[in-house]
Amino acid sequence: MADYIPSLASVDPQQFGMAVASNDGEVQVVGDCDVSFSVQSISKVFSLALVVANDGDQIWRRVSREPSGNPFNSLLQLDQEHGKPRNPFINAGALVVTDRLHSITGDATAYIRALVRRESGNPHIDGDPHVARSEGQQGHRNAALAHLLASYGNLECPVEAVLEQYFWQCSLSMTCRELALAASFLSRNGIRADGTRLLSGSHAKRINAVMLTCGTYDAAGEFAYRVGLPAKSGVGGGILAVIPDRCTICVWSPALGPSGNSTAGLAALDAFTTRTGWSIF
Length: 281
What we know:
Elements: H1 6-9, E1 17-22, E2 27-31, E3 37-38, H2 43-55, H3 75-80, H4 91-105, H5 108-120, E4 126-127, H6 129-138, H7 140-151, H8 159-170, E5 172-174, H9 176-182, H10 201-214, H11 220-226, E6 231-233, E7 238-243, E8 247-252, H12 263-276
Antiparallel strand pairs: 1-2, 1-8, 3-5, 4-5, 6-7, 7-8
Helix pairs in contact: 2-4, 2-5, 2-10, 4-7, 4-8, 5-8, 5-9, 6-8, 7-8
């Protein structure tokens, strides 16, 4: 369990849920699919999509697109590479993305919340203040990353504001069903649930590509080998996966492996793609 976030340490590790949302709007579910959980780093997909939607490719001047090969909260790598994070899905990269979204919109939290509410169909989705407070009290390494980024001139907003926004987005509480629906624009080449366009087809393709290579931290190679899908995991136990032009999948089980990915979630997605033959390879 992610016991370094106290509010996540007490979650029942035996829970399991899965939802598959097809591009025509049908949703197939199993298990604890309607139990809300802390999405944590899965939220980084939505913040990145909003930055790209509003600012195009400008974010890639400040964040790279390479796998890190190191833990998601590494300070050493960020310092060695002069304050430019390896990718937008490790913590340092997500802090830069959150910073940019806050600069563009004036309220990053409101824009992320509005997006997931609209796409999932649930107008009541919100951050969990207890989780956000817990992260803020224990988030010393994230604070260190933010200050290091600022020392290299790679933050536009005050460190405290960026951290507040970042902790809130990670505290979003959603179900497997809601997450699968909320991210379906990535399997529909950037098209929202209402038929309007959030991302160009090219931008959707590129976000999926970064998810494949970087979305499961330093286990991205193993995940690609076993599952063969773009995906983003979170230490709350969720994994969001995309099958372009077909469906979006969310699986949740809180017990984590050594890289911070759900152990049962990885096994379930491995079994799913093996049995269905649905993968990008």
